[in-house]
Amino acid sequence: MSSGTSDVLVIGGGVIGLVTAWRAAQRGLATAVVDPEPGGGAARVAAGMLAAVTELHYGEETLLALNLESARRYPGFAAEVTELTGHDLGYRRCGTLQVALDADDRAHLRELHALQERCGLESEWLSGRECRRLEPMLSPVVRGGLRVDGDHQIDPRRLAAALVVACERSGVVFHRAWAERLDVVRGRAAGVTTADGTELRAGQVVLAAGSLSGRLAGVPEALLPPVRPVKGQVLRLAVPRAYAPFLSRTVRAIVRGGHVYLVPRENGELVVGATSEELGWDTTVTAGGVYELLRDAHELVPGITELPLTETRAGLRPGSPDNAPLLGPSGLEGLVLATGHYRNGVLLTPVTGDVLARLLADGELPEEARPFTPQRFGAVLQEQSV
Ligand code: GLY
């Protein structure tokens, strides 16, 4: 059964697939998305920190450049989405405070500060007292922190819902189905077959299926993106109006060597995350996961245990071997990758849409995406594997 041909078919309707489809459609390409539930995916769970500076890890300096570029595009991107859709994205330019709890945590944070400074990033060291002046709900035991005014936040659920509307307004067609298999015809990606046997055909196919990207049937074994699921458990609490403002900015913390973050939204939601677990496809919310998050958040902000706990959820980050995304030609003609965004999918949404649309429309991968081609993992198509 055949149903429709497009210039571009995007597999995956999470924020990365949606932004790619929207931007491709804006460039005049007839574009379709295949996903049983567009607007779902890891963004349903993510906190939405736009944290190029405070999410920096050793050895990720190349990724930092892409993260900063996407952060730079965020104001224009958010304004454009809101203007087109009328949706408020919960984009808050509130800054971030990154704090340390005990002496070891403070030593660790000092090292992170030195790394941030070596990378030329704006980050100011504060005493514990100065941290509490900014955020009075912080525990008296906080030993010091970093004020990073450039790390902001967005509500990923609102972003995903708005991108669905942006796609619809731009003429993107949605096929609400599972892409069961990539179809390869004469050595070229030709489309997908969905779970009900429908064949969707396209000139170019984009694999943007998050953590599922690494196991789509039909992709030649040697070219399957090395993407794996990394579980994150996240809590949502509600700050009653009488308690507001509970926190005025995102607070990230190192708590006895572990990491926790608290993301306060303007509507009173407080997101607390996240565990990081290599447990395959498991998305169970566990007592241990909830306990650890609440324990660390409580040490940091004791008043948190007064708040109603409204939601517990686990999602799967699409992890890659170097923690950076795979953007660009897959090695199979007609198949392009936009996956492996790991901890930075929401942050990297604007730049991913831009570079993918340019590649799909003009055949050229922009400079800023070139360090992130899938070929860096040595994917080479052997003739016999097609
Ligand atoms: N970027 C936050 C997380 O992955 O938990």
UniProtKB/TrEMBL annotation:
Superkingdom field:
Bacteria
Q: In which pathway does it act?
A: Cofactor biosynthesis; thiamine diphosphate biosynthesis
**Keywords for this protein:** Oxidoreductase, Thiamine biosynthesis
EC numbers for this chain: 1.4.3.19
GO process annotations (BP): thiamine biosynthetic process; thiamine diphosphate biosynthetic process
Q: Could you confirm whether the keyword Transmembrane helix appears in this record? A: no
Please write the reaction equations for the catalytic activity of this protein: glycine + O2 + H2O = glyoxylate + H2O2 + NH4(+)
Keyword S-adenosyl-L-methionine recorded: no
Mention one GO molecular function. flavin adenine dinucleotide binding
User: What's its top-level EC category?
Assistant: oxidoreductase
One GO cellular component term, please give it.
cytoplasm
Which InterPro entries does the record cross-reference, listed alphabetically? FAD-dep_OxRdtase (IPR006076), FAD/NAD-bd_sf (IPR036188), Gly_oxidase_ThiO (IPR012727)
- FAD dependent oxidoreductase domain boundaries: 7-359
Q: What is this protein called?
A: glycine oxidase
Organism the protein comes from: Streptomyces broussonetiae
The uppermost taxa in this organism's lineage are: Bacteria, Bacillati, Actinomycetota, Actinomycetes, Kitasatosporales
